[in-house]
Amino acid sequence: MDQPSKESKRGTIRSFFNSYNIKSRKSTSAIPHNTTDSLSNETMDISSTSINDEQQEQISTYSSSLSPRLLSPSSNCFSPLDKPEENISSALFFSSMVLSPSNKRRQEQTSLSLPKSPRLSSPSSRVSQLSSPSSSADQQEKASSLLSSDVISDQIESSSFESSASSNKPTLNPSDLSSSFNEPPTQPKLATYPLNKDKRCFRIQWLSQYSWHSNSGINLNNRNQSDAYARGFNSWKNALSRNQGFPKHELSKSHKQAVVNFEEYIVRKQSSSSVLQVLDKSRKEVIEQNRTKLMKIVSLLHICGRQMIAIRGHSESEASSNRGNFIELLKWSSATDPIALSILNDSAKNSTYLSPSTQNNLVTLIASDIRQQIAQKISGCVFTLMVDESRDISGNQQLSVVVRVIDVEVTANNHQNCQSLFKEYFVGFVRLVEFDAQSLTNEIVKFLSSINIDINSCVAMCFDGASVLSGVHSGVQSLLRKQHIPRAIYVHCYAHKLNLVICDVTKAIPYLAEFYSIINKTYVYFHKSSVTNEMFKKVQQQLKIDRSDLSTNTTLKNWAETRWDSRWISIQSIIDNYQVLLQSLEELEEEGTDRSIDARGLLFALKEPLFIVTIFIIHNLFGKIKILSDQLKSESLDFGKAHILINSVIKQINDLRSEDEFDKLFEQIGEFCFKHDISFNIPIRHRRAKTVSTRFKDCIVMSTVGQREEISDKSEFQDRIFIHNLEILRGIASLSPDNTKFLEVEELKYLCNIFQCDILLLVNEIKVLKPMLEHSKSQNIVELYFEIVQFKQAFPTFTSLIVGALTIPVSSTTTERTFSKMKYIKTAARNSMSDGRLSDLSLIAIERDFHADYQKIIDVFATQHKNSRILLK
C-alpha cells in the first residue's frame, strides 16, 4: 500500500480530533502528557472499534514515516518552538493516537468517531465535557465486545501498540512511548530518522543533550501557542542555532513555565494531592500573606501607641512630605522589609488597610486584647478599686480607673523582686458628663461590667480626699457600699493625707508664706527672662560649676502645690546654687534697668538670716517626709509596712525638737553663713503693739465663758494619718511575724468579716500554723505570704486572709501617674482626639508590659469585617 501523503496524514489526525471536537492546528489546546491519565479514565468513550487489514497496513506505514516530535514536559500545555518548520507535530505522549479513518466512508462504516460536542473554552472544561459519554447504548455494547475480543488484542500486539493499563476504557499507544502521564517522558531511539528536504535528519545524541525532547505522532494543537504545536520542527540545519533552534527554545519563557508546571505536577502526584487540596493550599497561602501584612500594620500601630507618638499626620496623601509617623515608619521599614514594601506597592488602593478608620479599629482591638488579659488576671481574685479625676487639654473631665490585685502566680521560687507580687492595672479613662456622686458611681459600675470585671470581687476602695468621692453619707465610696459592695472598706490615700499635713504646716507659721513666695519669685526671675537666665549660666561658668554633675542641682526648681516632691527639691536647688544666686543678683542690680529693682529685693530677701534659718529647718524636715512620700507612692507597699514607716518618720520628727538635734542644725547654719559672708545676727522685727478697744477698758472679766481643748502639735500629724482605719491597721499588724499580737484571733475578726472568711476554720488553721512558724525567718506579712502560699491547699482560709490584707492599698498615686501619661498623649496638637481613642492609647502606653496577641486581633478583625476585600481566615 502506498505511503500516505502529508495531507492524508494530517487528515487522519484531524478526523480523529474532530471526533472529540478538537480542531487541528488552530482549534484546541494541547493535552499534556501528565493529564492523559485523567483523560484516559474520564474522556475516552469509544463507541465502537474495528481494525481490518487495510487499516493495519496504514497504521504500520504511518508510524514508520513519523519524524521526531520536539516538546517540553508540562503540566498543562506544550512548550512551543520559536520557528517551527514543516508538518511535524509538537505533542506529548497520548494514548489512542491513531485508529482514526481518513475518509468519511470509513467513519460511517466503523462508527469510531464520537458525536461532536460544543467547542470547549479551556482544557478543564473540555475534560468535564468529554467525561460525559454521549454515544448510544448499542454503540457502547458494540465497542465493549470488539475491544474485549482476542482479534483486537492480537492486532494491537502485532502493530506495536498496547492498551493503557491505567485507563478504565482501553486506548492504543505506540509501545515505545509512555502509555499514560503517570509514566515519565520517554525518548524512543530509532536506528534511522527520516531526512527532511535539506537531506538532514534528527541526531540521536540530541536526546541526551536536551532531555526535554520527546517523540509522538499526535497533532494536538494549541490555539494560543506557537505554530510549533501543529507543524513541529525539522529544520535540522538550524537545530543548534542560538537564535532559532533548541538553545533559543530552552531559554524561552514558555519552556521554563512548562518545566515548572511539570515538576509541580510530579510533586503533587507524589504527595497524592488533589485539585481541591492544591486550591485549598493556594487559598491558605493567600490568607497567610494577607495576615502577615496586616500583622505588620498592627505591630506598627502598637509601637506607636506604646511610645505615645502621634499615629497620623496633618495630611496622609501621597503628595505630602510628612504623612504621619505610622506611614513614615512603614516607608522607612520598606527599605529592608519586603512585607512593608508589599503593603505600600502591591496592595489594591481600596484594600491597603492604612485608612484612619482601619487604624482606629485596630487600636481599639489592641486595647481590648490588653483589657481581656487584665480581666483574666483579676478573674477569681479580690481586688481594690482606685479612681481619680482630672481634665484633659480639651477641658473634658476624665475619670481614671485602676485596679489593684495580688498576682497569685508569683510563688516563693520567683519572688526575688517583691514588686512582682503587687499589680496595679490601669483599665481606662471614663469621660464624665455629670459630676454628682451617683453619676460617678453608675459610670464606674457600667465601665467595669463592660470589661468583664465583677464589682462584687472588690474588697476595698482608695480615693483622694475629694468630697464627691470620699463623702461619708453621699460620696462615691458610700454609694458603692450601699448599692453594690457592702463589705468593702474605704481607704483615704495616705499620700494625699501627707500632702494635706504639709499644706497645713505652710499655713500655720506666718513667715512660711513669705518664705515660699521668695522661692517662687526667685525661680520666676531667672527663668522668665533670657537675660537673667544667661547671667545665671555665666556665673556658673565663672565659679566652675559643672552643669552635667548629677549630684547637685545646677538649675532652679519650681515649688508646686500638686508636686509633692517639688518642695524639698526646690529648697535643695536654692542651697546648691546660693552663691551663684547672690553673685548674679549683684551684677544684675548694677545694670540700672528695670530688672535691677527686682534683683535688689531678691538679694535682700536671700541674705536675710531668718530666711537662711528657715530654709535649713524646712529642708531637714521635708527631707524626712520625702522618704515617707516616696514609699507611699510605691505599688509594693502594704498596709503593715506603711504603718511601721509612718511611725518611724513621726519619731524622727519628734527627735528634731531635742537640744542635740537643734545644736547640730545651728552649727550647719553658722558654717553656711560664714562661707557666704552673711551676718548671723537676726534683726528684731519691730511690730506695732495691738491696742485694746476703748469699749473694753472698763470691762473686768472674772472668769472664762467657754472652754476649748488645747491642740497638741505633737499629736496632730499622727491623728491625721491614723485617725481612720485603726481596726484595719490592728488586723494587718497581727499578721506580721514581728508583732507582739501575731495571729491573735480577736485582732483578725474585723478582716475576717471584710473578706468573708469562716472564723472557725481560721481558728483551726492558726492552731496548726503557730507551731510551724515558731522558727520562721519571716519578718513581715509579704515574707509570711511566700512561706504560707506553698501550703495554700492546707490553709486556704489563712491564705485568703493574707491575700486580702495585701490587696488593701496605701495610696492611689497610680491614678496620678495615668494623668501624666494623658498629658503626653492628648496634647495641644492632638486636642481633637476622641475620648475612646484617648482611653485606648493611654492603656497601650501605660500597660506596656502586656504583649498583644496579633493573631487573635486579626481573627477578631476578620470576624467584624466579614465583607473584607482580602481573605484573612
UniProtKB/TrEMBL annotation:
Bias (Polar residues) ranges: 26-62, 142-156, 168-184
Q: Where is the composition biased (Low complexity)?
A: 63-75, 111-136, 157-167
**Gene Ontology MF, one:** protein dimerization activity
The domain of life is Eukaryota
Give start and end of each DUF4371 domain: 230-473
What positions does the domain HAT C-terminal dimerisation occupy? 780-849
Pfam family, any one: DUF4371
| Region feature (Disordered) | 26-82, 104-194
Which first-to-last residue range defines the signal peptide? Answer: none
Q: Which SUPFAM superfamilies match?
A: Ribonuclease H-like
- Matches recorded under InterPro entries: DUF4371, HATC_C_dom, RNaseH-like_sf
Annotated protein name in UniProt: Zinc finger MYM-type protein 1-like
Source organism (scientific name): Adineta steineri
Taxonomic lineage: Eukaryota, Metazoa, Spiralia, Gnathifera, Rotifera
